[in-house]
Amino acid sequence: IQVGVTAQKTMRLLPASGRKATQKVVVGDQDGVITCFGIKKGEAVTVFKTLPGQKIARLELGGALNTPQEKIFVATGSEVRGFTKRGKQFLSFETNLTESIKAMHISGADLFLCASYIYNHYCDCKDQHYYLSGDKINDVLCLPVDKVNCITPVLACQDRVLRVLQGSDLLYEVEVPGPPTVLALNNGNGGDSGEEIIYGTSDGKLGLVQITGSKPIPKWEIGNEKKRGGILCIDSFDILGDGVKDLLIGRDDGVLEIYSFESADDPVLRYDHALSESIASIQGGCVGKDGYDEILASTYSGWLTGLTTEPVHREGGSGEELKLSQEMQSKISSLRNELEHLQMKVLQEREKYQQSSQSSAALSSVPAFSVNDKFTLNKDDASYSLILEVQAAIDTVLVQSDVPIDLLDVDKNSAVVSFSSCDSEPNNNFLLATYRCQANTTRLELKVRSIEGQYGTLQAYVTPRIQPKTCQVYQYQIKPLSLHQRTHSIDHDRPMNTLTLKGQFSFAEIHSWVVFCLPEVPEKTPAGESITFYFQNTFLGTQLESTYRKGEGCFKSDNISTISILKDVLSKEATKRKINLNISYDINEESVKHTLKLIHPKLEYQQLLAKKVHLIDALRELQVHEGNVDFLLPKYRSILEEADQLLEEYKKQPAHLERLYGMITDLFIDKFKFKGTNVKTKVPLLLEILDGCDQDGLITFFEAA
């Protein structure tokens, strides 16, 4: 079944009215339509459908505490509307929020709403509490009042923190391993204590934390070893029928997972199923057939899919098989008729459009289509993932960049890529690549790796398979320190270089410069007089501490190149605004040796990989001629045995070695730049030493130059 494009958490199952009755499904889409339907004899039967309006950002069920939660609430723009299970509207509450509602939670008469940075709590539609968050809020939840006896809201914030509130104040913060995108009560009720919350992160991690009155108690955490997508939705439901509720997870790469709690406390992955689009909402219940539980998922473009526990291949005599086949035949013939009718309708509409477009009073209409895009830094391989999901099938995606970037290989990507030569000199055009997608591809994932210090814009031109041809352009900023990621803390014992700025600038101005330089910094100027952010370089593991206030900024890093990039970019930004900066720096000689020691293992590994890959063809030729490779040394035999994996790894990391060479060269130039010496003439000599891959020789060269 398909509705319009759906946002995260916009599909729910209404509680069953009888003892064994099937449940009705209610879903809200971005056309503003709420659809409620049930399934009878394998066909969807609509209970009610509202008229289109503003797009629906969230859909929740509510009702008086300890009664069936069968009232439907939707958040559209800054308004909350309530409907009965029959579709009659009983509430229209216009909030005082200036932005659109992004997240909503309902508990009895309490309504919890979040816009980008603002949290509001209402009771019986009267304003109670307000909180301004330091970073974007992705989801909101409240611990069950009947178990905890007090209202405890929890906000999932983009800066890898869960903020626990008490009234309008922050009670404490819970650090989590990635930006949390979704929250759910454990077991649907917060567990035995009512204090247990499950969170899912945008980098695919899952965890359970107990929110007590004074401090958080982490219970378990599951990493993302399989490199799957971010988590968008969570539900608890006993689908395996063992009396213990299982964990249902929907991810943004279309993977649906079932985790069960066996003897251990930690959940174990029992089943997974791949859909072709991101899963926006997931629910467990009984929908299609009485007595058989199923999992219902709604995807980005509005498809609702059910996975059932009902056996598909029926056991029994030939009579039952015949009955099933007759049922199937009638269903197939009705679908064929529907398809023919739709094809006729499309032809008629196309003719009508052709005639109207050729008339003298013709108005060309550009068909609108929605795109769900995500541009995020992956910590594991220091690359950016660009995910484009389109309402209709994608025809082509053209990627253009005005800074040098590498396109990396993605296993899930079946599109054909072709590169066009581009002139980097007059137009600053470094990359031009076209991805041609196979039919029915609605989701495309690309991976790129940038070079720190080179900043600009990456553009994606998305053309879907719709008539008339139309295209939308999406822009993504590649920042000067693009490979840095926010972190909760850093190692203060490392040798650090310091850059200090002083001048006539406001807190908002220096904050805007930091936003320009570094990813994952909230655009809104932080509250208070000063702020400290910590970062880690995902490629090298070096770190950065930035502390600033009105008129002063202090940046510390164990990598001289990071300080050098910041100095160049910040002085350029200040010059643009005609602000005089007093720049001072304190360089720690030990930090260069420390950074080289961090780079060296990576350099050694990549050089060895490159050597092995260069030997593969020659070794294979020997194998063909000799027919037997027993005479080869074990190290060469192992290269032949692992040839496919080595080639695969080498293909996935193009230009990895050149990037490491570039970083060491930059480090060498930057070290002497701060001393006022130009050492560019010594770079060829440095490259010769790098080819030799001798760590001590390299450190000696840096110190002697």
Automatic annotation (TrEMBL):
<feature type="domain" description="BBS7 beta-propeller">
    <location>
        <begin position="11"/>
        <end position="309"/>
    </location>
</feature>
<dbReference type="GO" id="GO:0008104">
    <property type="term" value="P:intracellular protein localization"/>
</dbReference>
<dbReference type="GO" id="GO:0043005">
    <property type="term" value="C:neuron projection"/>
</dbReference>
<dbReference type="GO" id="GO:0036064">
    <property type="term" value="C:ciliary basal body"/>
</dbReference>
<feature type="domain" description="BBS7 helical hairpin">
    <location>
        <begin position="589"/>
        <end position="702"/>
    </location>
</feature>
<dbReference type="InterPro" id="IPR056335">
    <property type="entry name" value="BBS7_hairpin"/>
</dbReference>
<dbReference type="InterPro" id="IPR036322">
    <property type="entry name" value="WD40_repeat_dom_sf"/>
</dbReference>
<keyword id="KW-0175">Coiled coil</keyword>
<protein>
    <submittedName>
        <fullName>BBS7 protein</fullName>
    </submittedName>
</protein>
<feature type="coiled-coil region">
    <location>
        <begin position="325"/>
        <end position="352"/>
    </location>
</feature>
<dbReference type="Pfam" id="PF23349">
    <property type="entry name" value="BBS7_hp"/>
</dbReference>
<dbReference type="InterPro" id="IPR016575">
    <property type="entry name" value="Bardet-Biedl_syndrome_7_prot"/>
</dbReference>
<dbReference type="Pfam" id="PF23361">
    <property type="entry name" value="BBS7_pf"/>
</dbReference>
<feature type="domain" description="BBS7 GAE">
    <location>
        <begin position="367"/>
        <end position="476"/>
    </location>
</feature>
<feature type="domain" description="BBS7 platform">
    <location>
        <begin position="484"/>
        <end position="586"/>
    </location>
</feature>
<dbReference type="Pfam" id="PF23743">
    <property type="entry name" value="Beta-prop_BBS7"/>
</dbReference>
<dbReference type="InterPro" id="IPR056333">
    <property type="entry name" value="BBS7_pf_dom"/>
</dbReference>
<dbReference type="GO" id="GO:0005930">
    <property type="term" value="C:axoneme"/>
</dbReference>
<dbReference type="InterPro" id="IPR056334">
    <property type="entry name" value="BBS7_GAE_dom"/>
</dbReference>
<dbReference type="InterPro" id="IPR056332">
    <property type="entry name" value="Beta-prop_BBS7"/>
</dbReference>
<dbReference type="Pfam" id="PF23360">
    <property type="entry name" value="BBS7_GAE"/>
</dbReference>
<dbReference type="GO" id="GO:0034464">
    <property type="term" value="C:BBSome"/>
</dbReference>
<dbReference type="GO" id="GO:0016020">
    <property type="term" value="C:membrane"/>
</dbReference>
<dbReference type="GO" id="GO:1905515">
    <property type="term" value="P:non-motile cilium assembly"/>
</dbReference>
